[in-house]
Design brief:
By secondary structure, this protein is of the alpha/beta class. It has a single domain (about 5-129), classed as Rossmann fold (3-Layer(aba) Sandwich). About 40% of the residues lie in helices and about 20% in strands. The chain has four helices and five strands. The protein has helices spanning about 20-30, 65-85, 95-105, 125-129, and strands at about 5-10, 35-40, 55-60, 90, 110-115. It has a five-stranded parallel sheet, sandwiched between helices. Helix 3 links the parallel strand 4 (about 90) and strand 5. Helix 2 packs across helix 3 (about 95-105). The radius of gyration is 14 Å and the shape is globular.
Length: about 130
């Protein structure tokens, strides 16, 4: 049985941290429960362990905080969302969250964000998203 739910997780780097392993675990859990799973990341150590038969891995420089690159990433994410008919976008960090926010507004898809860690708050902009 195939699913109509396609979930895209966007994370800066897929390393061995808590958010990263959570992303990895969710990505492999979804296909076992009749959902299609996609990850957009700039790379990282865990990418070599992704089961390519279960999870579609797309590399994009979503780690960047450069406003121009965030805008470019959002345009590319719009294409990914439409091409793969993504239902839900899960942004797992602030920088990619801005790209995801714009892309989901344009495509009218659902956006979920994960707040990981309560450190390094300095300024209203960081508290916004």
């Amino acid at each position: 049985m195939s699913s109509n739910i396609n979930v895209l997780q966007v994370i800066p780097k897929l390393g061995y941290g808590g958010a990263e392993t959570g992303c990895y675990d969710v990505a492999h859990y979804l296909p076992e429960n009749n959902c299609n799973s996609f990850i957009v990341t700039s790379g990282g150590e865990l990418t070599k362990f992704i089961d390519k038969k279960k999870v579609k891995l797309i590399r994009l420089p979503v780690h960047s905080k450069n406003p121009l690159l965030i805008l470019i990433n959002s345009i590319i994410l719009v294409g990914i969302i439409l091409f793969f008919n993504i239902s839900i976008v899960h942004a797992r960090s602030r920088a990619p969250a801005w790209s995801c926010l714009l892309a989901t507004k344009i495509t009218k898809r659902k956006l979920v964000t994960t707040f990981h860690g309560t450190y390094n708050f300095s300024g209203r902009l960081k508290k916004t998203l």
